[in-house]
Amino acid sequence: MNxxxxxxxxxxTHPDELSYNTEILKLTNKILEQRFLAKNILANVSxxxxxxxxxxx
Length: 57
Known about the structure:
- The chain is an all-alpha fold.
- 88% of the residues lie in helices and 0% in strands.
- The chain is built from two helices and no strands.
- The longest helix is centred in the middle third of the chain and has 39 residues, at 18-56.
């Protein structure tokens, strides 16, 4: 069961904790977004810098 499913299940069993579960989902999404950026964007930028440096020499 992933974090989103856990939050949904928690909400269904304790609907008064909606704001808490919403904050957990926001935090989880932010972490996933940062991992995606680090893996896909930053890796490509460093590769571009490397290839530009190799081509200039």
